[in-house]
Amino acid sequence: EFFPLLELPEEIQAVVVERAARNSIQDLYGLKASSRSMKALAERRGVYHFLDVLSVPWGLNMPSELLKACYDEGNPSTLYIKGVQFFYSLDLHEEGLSLMKRAADAGYERAVYTHAMTRAIFGGEGKYFDGIPFESVDRMSKLVRSVKWGWGLWHGDYFRDHKVLFISFFMSSFYRCQCANLVQRQCHCLWHIDVTKDDNMCKRCFWIKELGLFLRDFEPISLLRDTRKW
To answer: Could you tell me the pTM of the whole model?
Structure first.
């Protein structure tokens, strides 16, 4: 309450508003309510580019007009949501990948991870793993897999077919590889892949495990939010 924010140059105030929008909608609205000048800055359309709409509880039912306004500003979180739904739910693969890549190129972490997993599973391209900092893999993986808006109902056949192929061709090699100690002897299936080996896995098995977790837990954005209207 003692920080003289309004005494800073307006261009610096604008940067503060943009950072607040990227952090959380609660912070943005807190700034917006603090003064008339902050309200004016927070209501500029350019701020919509920075808002992470996935930081907003989906149950709050964000207006479609706000989501579309964010998308029109090239907002990475809405590019990601639309890309995921196009690829995984609507089987619009080229368009979905393009949208996810735009979000990933903007540095949106969920998109960086999901785009890399998607390229590896459906295109056999492991080169995108290099864009995920190794020390951030676990955090980014959990961030992506924690979103449960689809309730597992909206995967297309394309996803399910590749999941079967993954289990057939990669799971057996994961369990055969002697690169790490077995932590728990479970059935050789996708469900227990994260508790089977310790941290001494080879690089190949590490990424097989990540792909397995993605295929096991990832759910696309629910069609209750039809992004084609954006």
So the answer is: 0.78
